Amino acid sequence: MSKKRNYIDEILEIKSRNNKRGTRDELAMKRIRPLVEGFREIKKLDSTVSYKNEWLKYGAIGYVAILEGYFRLLIADLINAGLPFRDRVMELKDIKFSPEVVLAMHDKKISLGEFVSHLLSINRISDIDNHLSTILGGPFIKGLSKMPTYKPTNMKPFGEVFPDVFGNIEKLFQLRHIYAHELATKEKVPVRKLESYIGSAALLIIQTEEYISENYDIKA
User: Fold this and answer.
1) What SS3 class is residue 104?
2) CA-CA distance, 65 to 173, in Å (whole number)?
3) Radius of gyration for the chain, computed over Cα atoms and rounded to the nearest angstrom
4) Which listed residue, of 35, 118, 165, 186, carries a Cα 20 to 30 Å from 18's Cα?
5) How open is the CA angle 154-156-157, to the nearest 5 degrees?
6) Residues 6 or more apart from 148 whose CB is under 8 A from it?
7) Rounded to the nearest 5°, which phi and psi values hold at 174?
8) Domain boundaries, the chain
9) Other CB atoms closer than 10 Å to residue 62's CB: what's the count?
10) Maximum Cα–Cα distance across the chain
11) Which segments within 15-83 are labelled E, that is strand?
12) DSSP per residue over 115-180, as a string?
């Protein structure tokens, strides 16, 4: 018989592994910067270096972890901001509240947003779109794509300037799944493609912050 998961302990452990200070985008960037530097250094190595290909794979694993962590924090922040986001939790599937969870919220050990975001699956770009579209009350990716890019000198829509972003991130999720869950000993890292994929992940975080701050009154 499998042991019942303790969601409260899981959430508290995850919180303990994050810095207490810093906004969600600051926490994401805290991990992105050294990951980018490391990826660049590993990429410079000669192809004969035995561990080069293996360590490059961690670019995909690391960036998906950042995406997942960032969007869980964003979802939690939106729900914790209150109406109208809080009431839309009822529209999310597979969110069930046990008496233990209700008591933990009452005692302020965890928040509603932390609990809901912890339970949501984030394994592909469509998961991010579905969850945020529900909570925001409108299509997330469509709205994000129509918004001007974060660069002040370029007022063209984000989706027009970076048309491959969402497709790239879907491929990044696919690579992460392979590298994290399979031996894949014959699999070589598509370095140039991977660079585009991880660049798209950083762009998505930056643009999402702009989109949320411009359209919704919540704190980072």
Assistant:
1) helix
2) 10
3) 19
4) 165
5) 130
6) 154, 155, 156, 157, 158
7) -65, -45
8) 7-14+23-215
9) 20
10) 59
11) none
12) HHHHHS--SSHHHHHHHHHHHHTS-HHHHHHHSBPSSTT--SBHHHHSTTHHHHHHHHHHHHHHHH
CA dist 190 and 9 (Å) reads 38
148 beta partners = 157
Tell me which residue of 146, 161, 138 sits closest to 216, measured CA to CA: 138
Tell whether pTM > 0.85: yes
- Interatomic CA distance for residues 159 and 203, integer angstroms: 11
Q: Quick one: which of 90, 66, 99, 60 has its CA closest to 195? A: 60
- Here the tokens at position 7 are 């969601």
For residue range 13-70, list pLDDT tens digits in order.
999 999 888 899 999 999 999 999 999 999 999 989 999 999 999 999 999 999 999 9
Q: List the structure tokens of 2.
A: 């499998």
Distance CA 74, CA 29 (A): 14
Q: How far is CA 76 from CA 52, 143, 151, 169, in A?
A: 37, 20, 27, 22
pLDDT digits over 76-109, tens only?
999 999 999 999 999 998 788 888 888 888 889 9
Cα–Cα–Cα angle for 84, 86, 90, rounded to 5 degrees: 110
List the one residue out of 31, 43, 52, 20 whose CA is nearest residue 201.
31
